[in-house]
Design a protein that fits this description.
alpha+beta; 5 helices; 4 strands; 20% strand; elongated
Amino acid sequence: MHSLDDTDRTLLRLLRADGRMSNAALAEEVGLSPSACLRRLRLLEHRGVIRGYTAIIAEAPAREGVTVIVQITLERQTDDSMQRFEVAVRRCPEVRECYLMTGLSDYLLRVEARDAADYERIHKDALSRLPGVARIQSSFAIRSVVRS
């Protein structure tokens, strides 16, 4: 992968702040012509630096459900064990995010459930049945402080 220059980094910073910014506005901000700016964006997309565009949806103040942060430790940390776990965890619709970690646990998951009883079901029927799981540690989130 090619390294990013200052213009690329500025484009990415601007898009992180406003993903719907027009190409003309982006071009003006970074000092490029609109066609040159568009070529840069397409190149960043082609190289996989920009993987997509999304909307961040505000949560309702009295949001239903709970967010659970789950730390998973595998029995073994071999490539095969990790790959089998990752394939299986992608099939769990309640798992919203999954990160391979350093430190005491191997994976960190963000799980959404309706309530504690629903999380118990997810824990029993999905998480504890994932291949290679040795330990599961769960923490219930009280509220979101920063979300981008």
